[in-house]
Write a structure and sequence with these properties.
The structure holds two protein chains of two kinds. Helices cover about 30% and strands about 20% of the residues of chain A. Chain A has 15 helices and 20 strands. In chain A, a hairpin with a 2-residue loop joins strand 6 and strand 7. In chain A, helix 8 (about 305-315) runs antiparallel to helix 10 (about 355-365) and helix 14 packs antiparallel against helix 15 (about 480-495). In chain B, helix 1 (about 1-30) runs antiparallel to helix 13 (about 285-315), helix 5 crosses helix 8 (about 180-215) and helix 5 runs parallel beside helix 13. Chain B has helices spanning about 1-30, 35, 45-55, 60-70, 85-120, 125-140, 145-155, 180-215, 220-225, 230-260, 260-265, 275-280, 285-315; strands spanning about 170, 175. Chain B has a two-stranded antiparallel ribbon with strand order 1-2. In chain B, strand 1 (about 170) and strand 2 (about 175) form a beta hairpin. Chain B starts with a helix and ends in an 11-residue tail after the last helix. The chains are: A alpha+beta, B mainly alpha. At the A-B interface, helix 6 and helix 12 of A face helix 2, helix 3, helix 5, helix 7 and helix 12 of B.
Chain lengths: ~550, ~325
């Protein structure tokens, strides 16, 4: 290191020191949706999860690309097909000073099923646990009911509470049907009080006013990188235009999800817009279960059962055109169900736009004059959802398919979709696990209550070959083998045109010039990950 | 008087029951809350468990009967989203909405009545004409657009006032209010103005019409002939008379401001009841929607009753004793 470089490094270090010692560095963020509770085990949904990560941590965390990274566990390994050993971080303290040990993790898992009135409980992640043993204060052995390669990912969703804060003394014994010695766990409303909302995260709760704001302050004993801001205020501003106005007026320093049409204006006002690919896929699904409703085809049969018709529809859609003209570049044309290089992806190119090839396939399939079909779409759920559906309708008209677009508000759309009222629908999917098994299990695996798969497969696509490959992948612990199986399974679906991927949405954040935020595929806005601009570059 | 009150009460109960049925059926048609609430990655078993827990697996009439039974026991249901009683959620938001509505009401009366009286006394002057022209603007500009313009001008361009939210609050008798702090007032001005502009225009037009009518009455002419000062004539004779129709209308308008300040609360991210209603509709939080609408019906019915009584107090010609049949 030259003397010059040393001086710079010293100055930078001093600047950093001065920055942390400065009395007030406030950050106010305008959020597009409000969390329904501070209780980290209450509601499994993005607005809740992104706030809880400031206050509560998990054994495992996900980075910007949703790759797993150590958090309260420094490492983890599969001992055999159903046993996992987590080595816990030493010297971690909760924001009230209590030590973090294996007991706290057992306590937290024990509490999950006891949360009352949870709209969407976290039991879907803890149900798999058969036994938990604290081998020492900082080593935890967990046994699963069946082989579960995604177990570490699932553990990244479980927030860890302090057993001591909630009045537990002595060891906690895990039992699947109800644990021993856990006292009376707090209920969700109790977490509105800072003395109950105690976690190991970079921030701690100062106050929570429902509908108005959440105020956070740094956790002084935090084990990791100290957060930049001395006070963070999170304000839900659910309508788009007022959220942008609040940013332009300087009421807030940063907003999430600025509307596409305002991005130019925000840039012109001298603010920064950061954007990155999200894990949200926009796709078209087709009814592939016998006679579909709202389809009028010659011969009276459901033309969507013919793979050639589905391929023709896919080729007739100009995905790049949609991305450029409707999405204003705020999307990336999709050739598969998750953007590469996420786990189990193929790196497959989007289906090429080929209207002539599509027409030929339609003739081959016996539909030279096309057919009539209804395309269902929400009009307030995804970016430009209704416009995309209209464009798809026009593109399909060129191969003689007359598409009637049926739009409704999200709450209505999902109800009607799940009742299978649409023969053809546009929807979106975010893989919270960052793993290809997520869209495969929910969107295209055979609908079956017993396996719990195909939950959102309202087109009822079913392919035994795909199901077999997926089942095998879901019980393979070895990552390389599993990724290979997922790739094979995905190839089967895509070759069969069982589902038509359109594009991946780009998520944007807008903020003042002196702030920096790295876009995340999970679309989370994490206050502790907001940095000062140029801080690292100096 | 008693018979009249009883009859009014009977009508009110009928209105509330009819509303309960309409609201319940309407909300039922909105969609299935489970499809919105539960994480899409949940399995069908999780979904079924949620449906059962929320009682959505029962037929509509059975859900309605259970609901009515609970309401009669004073239980308006628990929010699907927050897991807390719907009534508690609404009442938590009530102070913010009341504060906004009363400030808006005060603004519309304080500016509307004097401006209306001036326009009524001097209808052909420049002042009179411009007041009327202004009131047309206040009437016809859409509330949402008006709010956005206020934000654009006063918050974004001039930077004088904050663009939304509720400012610093102080606890007054256990209720958190923001009218008593400078920061709170700064946050309150724009939304209150947005909510008041339409009402103000209404008051101006009402006051003007009434003033023009009253100014030609014999007793006003007589007062003037008697040599009373113009000030006394306006304050004592004209103002007192025109307040009767204005009070009637304001009573109803206050109810609508409290219950449906939705647009203003949304534009200014004001954490009041209207915002809660909109958020609840988007999340299909049925118990909150139903409880809110029922509470609103109750409120409007009660305010109507109070206005009727106030009417009698202000106008000695109206006697509730006469209205027996």
């Amino acid at each position: 290191m030259t003397l010059h470089a040393k001086t710079i490094a010293l100055t930078a270090a001093f600047a950093a020191f001065a920055a942390t010692a400065a009395p007030a560095k406030d950050l106010t963020i305008g959020l597009s949706a409000e969390a329904s509770s501070i209780d980290p085990h209450f509601h499994q949904l993005t607005p809740n999860n992104q706030i809880r990560q400031n206050i509560f941590e998990s054994l495992v965390a996900q980075d910007e690309q949703q790759k797993l990274k150590p958090s309260l566990a420094t490492k983890w390994e599969a001992v055999d097909d159903t046993n996992w050993r987590f080595t816990l971080r030493e010297g971690v303290k909760f924001s009230n000073g209590a030590d973090f040990t294996a007991r706290d993790m057992i306590y937290s898992v024990c509490r999950v099923p006891l949360v009352k009135d949870s709209p969407s409980p976290f039991t879907s992640y803890t149900r798999i646990i058969a036994a938990m043993t604290a081998e020492s204060d900082h080593s935890l052995l967990i046994k699963t009911v069946s082989p579960d390669p995604l177990f570490p990912v699932e553990m990244s969703q479980i927030a860890i509470l302090s057993a001591a804060v909630n009045g537990v003394t002595g060891p906690v014994t895990f039992k699947p049907e109800g644990c021993d010695n856990i006292g009376t766990p707090p209920q969700s409303a109790d977490f509105n009080k800072p003395e109950v909302a105690v976690g190991t995260g970079p921030y701690k709760l100062v106050s929570y006013t429902r509908g108005d704001r959440i105020v956070l302050e740094p956790n002084p004993g935090y084990w990791g990188e100290k957060p930049v801001w001395t006070k963070v205020t999170l304000r839900p501003i659910t309508s788009d235009a007022p959220r942008v106005a609040a940013l332009l007026a300087g009421d807030v320093d940063m907003i999430e999800n600025p509307p596409v049409q305002d991005i130019e204006r925000i840039r012109k006002a001298g603010l920064t817009v950061a954007q990155g690919l999200s894990n949200r896929l926009i796709y078209l699904h087709m009814d592939q279960e016998g006679d579909a409703p709202n389809v009028i085809a010659p011969g009276g049969k459901n033309p969507l059962l013919d793979a050639r018709v589905r391929a023709a529809m896919s080729k007739a859609i100009n995905r790049k055109g949609i991305v450029e003209r409707i999405m204003g570049g705020m999307a990336q044309a999709a050739g598969e169900l998750l953007p590469a290089p996420m786990f189990g992806t193929l790196g497959r190119e989007p289906e090429a736009y080929d209207p002539d090839g599509a027409k030929k396939l339609m003739v081959e399939a016996g539909y030279p004059d096309g057919f009539e079909i209804t395309l269902g779409t929400p009009n307030d759920r995804y970016v430009n959802d209704e416009k995309i559906a209209q464009a798809v309708a026009q593109m399909l008209a060129r191969i003689n398919i007359k598409v009637k677009v049926d739009t409704s508000t999200a709450s209505q759309f999902f109800t009607r979709r799940n009742k299978q009222e649409y023969p053809f629908y546009l929807s979106g999917w975010s893989a919270s696990t960052g793993d290809t098994s997520s869209p495969l299990v929910t969107l295209v695996a055979t609908f079956d209550k017993a396996t719990g798969r195909g939950g959102t497969n309202a087109g009822r696509y079913s392919n035994p070959k795909m199901d077999a490959l997926l089942s095998q992948a879901l019980s393979t612990i070895d990552d390389d083998k599993r990724a290979d199986l997922l790739r094979q399974a995905q190839t089967v679906v895509l070759d069969d045109h069982g589902i038509l991927p359109l594009h991946f949405e780009v998520t944007a954040w807008a903020f003042k010039k002196d702030i920096d935020y790295k876009p995340r595929t999970d679309q989370y806005t994490l206050a502790f990950a907001v940095k000062e601009a140029g801080g690292a570059a100096k | 008087m008693l018979v009249y009150m009883l009859r009014r009460l009977g009508q009110s109960v009928l209105a509330i029951v009819a509303m309960a049925v309409i609201v319940f059926v309407g909300v039922y048609a909105l969609g299935n809350p489970v499809d919105i609430l539960i994480s899409p990655e949940a399995t069908q078993l999780d979904m079924e468990a949620a449906v059962q827990r929320l009682g959505l697996d029962k037929p509509l009439w059975e859900q309605f009967t259970i609901y009515v039974g609970n309401v009669l026991h004073g239980d308006l249901g628990k929010s699907f989203v927050y897991g807390t009683p719907a009534l508690t959620l609404i009442l938590q938001r009530l102070p913010a909405t009341l504060e906004l509505a009363f400030v808006a009401l005060a603004l519309s009366v304080l500016f509307g009545v004097p401006l209306g009286v001036i326009a009524g006394l001097k209808p052909d002057t420049a002042a009179g004409r411009s007041i009327m022209a202004g009131s047309i603007l206040g009437f016809s500009l859409p509330n949402f657009w008006q709010g956005m313009m206020l934000i654009l001008v006063f918050a974004v361009i001039l930077g004088w006032l904050p663009a939304g939210g509720r400012g610093t609050m102080v606890s007054v008798l256990g209720v958190e209010l923001s009218v008593f702090t400078a920061d709170g007032l700064a946050h309150l001005i724009l939304p209150a103005l947005n909510l008041a502009l339409f009402k103000m225009s209404l008051v101006i037009r009402l006051a003007r019409a009434a003033t023009r009518e009253v100014a030609l009455q014999d007793y006003v002419k007589f007062a003037r002939a008697k040599g009373l000062s113009e000030r006394r004539i306006v304050l004592m004779h004209i103002l007192k008379t025109i307040m009767i129709p204005i009070t009637t209308i304001l009573g109803l308008e206050l109810a609508s401001m409290i219950a449906f300040g939705i647009v203003t609360e949304t534009v200014f991210s004001w954490p009041g009841m209207g915002k809660l209603l909109i958020d609840s509709i988007n999340l299909l939080d049925r118990p909150v929607i139903v409880a809110y609408l029922m509470l609103t019906v109750f409120l409007i019915v009660m305010i109507n009753l109070v206005v009727d009584i106030l009417y009698a107090v202000l106008d000695p010609r109206i006697s509730l004793k006469d209205m027996t049949a």
